[in-house]
Amino acid sequence: MERFDAIVIGAGHNGLTAAAYLARAGLSVLVLEKNDRIGGVAANREIVPGFTFSAAHRPALRIRSQVVRDLELGRHGLSLIPDPGTISLLPEGGYLATYGSVAESIEEIRQHSHGDAESYEQFVHRLRRHNWAVEPLLHSSPAPPVSKHRRSPQPSPSFANRCRALGEAGLSDLIYLVSSSMSDILNEEFETPALASHLAGPALLGLPFGPLSPMTGLHLLNGVSHAFQSDANYCGYPRGGTGAVSRALVGALLSYGGEVRTRNTVTDIVMKDKRASGVVTESGEQLEAGMVLSSLDLKRTILTMFDWRALGEGLVDKIGSFRMEGVAAHLNLALDGLPDFPTVPTACQARGGEWQIALTLPQIERAYDDWKNKIQPRQPHIVFRLPTLADPGLAPDDKHIMSVTVQYVPFSFLDGGWNEEKKDAFSELVINAIGDYSPNLKDLISDLEVLVPPDLEAEFGLTQGDYFQGVPGIDQLFFNRPLPALSNYAMPIDRLYLCGSSAHPGNAVTGMPGALAAEAAIQRMRGTRR
If you average pLDDT over residues 347-351, what whole number do you get? Predict the structure, then answer.
C-alpha cells in the first residue's frame, strides 16, 4: 500500500496551492483529482478546437503576490496581463469607464459629472486606506477575538495596529462601510446613478445579495478597489487563460517532488484511532497518509467522505446549515470576428477589461428579487469580457471569444428545474441584451456553451453551484468561516484539513485558503505554536 505524508483531495487552484506548499516543506504529497483536467472552475476548456475559455470563472485574478513569490510561479510560466479597466454600456447611449489609473478614471468620470470626479478620488483613497487596515486579516489564519485555548491563533497584531492608525474617525467609517448596503454608500457618495451601478455591478457577482442588502458595503472593498490595492494582491489576466495558474502551480508542485493523479475520485476518507489516515478511491485503491487535506467544500468533505454520525448531531446540524447558494450562470461564446460596440471608441483602453450592461441599482435589486422568487431574470445583470483583446492567443487568428457571467440566476424554478428549453430561452435573453449594444454579435457566434448553477454543481462539484463554496456574508467570514469551531482549517477529525474556498479567506482566486491551510497543517505536524 502506498503511503504519503499528505494527500490532497481536488486539483483546483487551492488544492494545488496547498499541495505545493506542503511539498516545498519537504513532505511527500499526492493530489487526487476526479476529472481528467486540473484547475476546477478556474481551468481552461475548449468548446470548439482552438478556442480557449476559462471554464466557469471570471478570468481576472487576485492571486496574492505572496503565493506567486513563495512558489516561484513566474518561473513555472505564470504571466499576468494587467487589468485595463471596466466599461459600462449605458442604455441612453455612450459608456462610462474606469481604469487602473485613478487619474485617468477621474478624467473619464468628469465627462459625466464634475462633482463625481472629485468624489471618486476621495472614495478610492477611502477604500485604499480601509483595505490597508483589513489586509492583514486576508493573509493570516483567522483568529477568534476571545479564546480559552492557549494554542489558538491570536488576532493579527498588524490588524490591531492598523486599526489604531486609522484613528477614531477612520475606524468608525470602516465599521459604517462594512455594515451598510452598497446602495446607501454609493448613493451617498455619487450623484450619477450610472457611476453607482458601475461600481456595484462587478462587486455583486456571485453574491446572493442585492445592492440594498445590509453589510454588502464590505464587498466594495474587494470588488471595487482591487485595482488600487497594494502588492498583497497580484491582479490581472493570466496569459493563456485561468488554466495557466493551475499549470504553474502543478509545475511548482512537481519541482518540489509532489505528484498529481487525475481521473482518481476519492470516495472515502479513512479514519484510524479518530484520525484521518488515508483515502479510498472509486477503483477501491486505498492510500495511506499522515494527513489529508480537502479542497472540496465543507459539506462535501464532512457529509459525504466518512461516517459523519460519529461527530454528534450538534456539529453535523451546523455543517448542514452552512449556507451555500449559487447565483451566477456562465456563457462561453466562440466568435468568428470581433463584435462591434459603436458607442465605445476603439481607442478606449478598458475594452480589454470587464464590460457590463448598465442597470440602475433599483433594477439590479429587482433582478435580485427575481432570483429570490425563483423565476427567470426578466432584466439580467450581465458582465462580460472579450479576453482575446488582451490575449489573442486564446483563439485562432481573427477569431475571438466572449466570456459572460450573468448574476441572479436561480438553481431551480418555482415550476421545476432547468431543461434545454429553459436554457435556450435564457441564452437568447442574454445574447439579445448584449446584442442591443453590438449589432453584429449574433452573426459572429459560431458556438455557444451555457453553464447554469446545476451544471456547475454536476461538473465541478460546487454545491448549489456556489463557486465561493459558501456564502461570503459577514456571518461566514473571517473567524466564522466556515464555522467558529472549525475556523483554523482543522476539521473535527484529527489530521484532516479544509483547504478550499469554504475556508478563510474564502472567495476569489487568491490561493490563500490553500496556502494558510498548508501552513496550519505543517505547524500542527511540527508541534509549533502560532
Answer: 93
